[in-house]
Amino acid sequence: MRLRAPTRFAGPLGVPGDKSISHRVVLFSAIAAGTTTIANLNRGADVQASLNAVRVLGARVDQDGVLVRVTGVARLRDPAQPIDCANSGTTMRVLAGALAGRVNAVLDGDASLRARPMERVAEPLRAMGADVRCSERGTAPIVFTPSQKQLRGITYELPIASAQVKTAVLLAGLRAKGATAVISPSHSRDHSELMLSAMGAAVDVDGLRTTVRPAQLHALDGYAVPGDVSAAAYFIAAATALPGSRISVLATGINPTRSAALDVMRDMGAHISIRNLSVQHGEPVADIEVSSASPLRNVELDPARVANVIDEIPLLCALAATANGSFTVRDAAELRTKESDRIRSTIELLRAFGVSVNELPDGIAVRGGRPLRPPLAISTGGDHRIGLTAAVLAAAARAPLVIEDADCIATSFPDFERAWHAAFAKEPASA
Ligand code: S3P
To answer: Distance from the CA of 254 to the center of ligand 1, in angstroms?
Structure first.
């Protein structure tokens, strides 16, 4: 991917549908009674993996122009082949909760997904009585065998604040005997709780404890996926860093369990404001207006907020490199189990731009405020968020950039190159 050098960012723009929400609406609709019509579904490869999975499990998927219709099935079908979750951890972990105890199936994925921890989702499902087995290394392929008995509700204390594992346990809980509760060490994204409630499940949230009771889900009468705030964040950071920029990212999800990175940027001095707020099926959606800001200053990142900025940590480190002072991320060892070891890959990316940065066992320390030295080309190592963060670093340095192995960007943001260039202002800022 060849990115040109921007002068500044301008104008209204849209981002793809939220990836987390897109997975959920596809996977939940597949087990709900009736047909859910979905607008603005994320078209990236990850969500495609969820659509393919529900299709082979017997749900009906129809594409009708910009709309996708998913019709649920009462009894999931045993797939003849392993289900390929490709690069998508959310497909694999969330689907595990829907499959546990009721089908003969195998979940598999690409080399990156096969290296990621899956025992964390198999363990609570086994505690509910399901037969779920990972490889000896605790990874995919995951093998599911139906249970004779109904699953039993449990109270499960998550060792890490994973929204994917929380969702899997709650989904299995919909078919279990009695109540199922998940206790999280800190708040993680709550899209599942909101959507399951909208689909008719009794979901009770009490602080860090979420409880579900057995329920049959019902299709939603039309669901519009909000724009992905994690995708918007790259434009917001670039517009913040490039003088003279002014953008508005339209109809974007600003759920507080996802938008904490915007709060961190605001604390750094970014000019970000919210317009046209509405709530759709429980999810807050708004236009996000941004104008450039300088100087930025680095702030402390509260470790309790890490789960709510987890996907934006590479980006926050990049913005921190352009700001005065230093920025330290701690308590984020989870980053080592993402699409890449994101502590390593973020550090390598920042160093490629001449940034002074230290690796910590559970985080990253960035020394900001020195001029960036942009390379001609970088490698993503197969991680979309590293490629997207590289685009922001190059923009902040007003440099062109070649992104090698850029295909992975399409897992979350198909058509990124066109969208990025479309946001470049056609003429320089008037004085
Ligand atoms: C996601 C949860 C997070 C996040 C991932 C998407 C989700 O992962 O990093 O990109 O949609 O639930 P964990 O559940 O592993 O924290």
So the answer is: 16
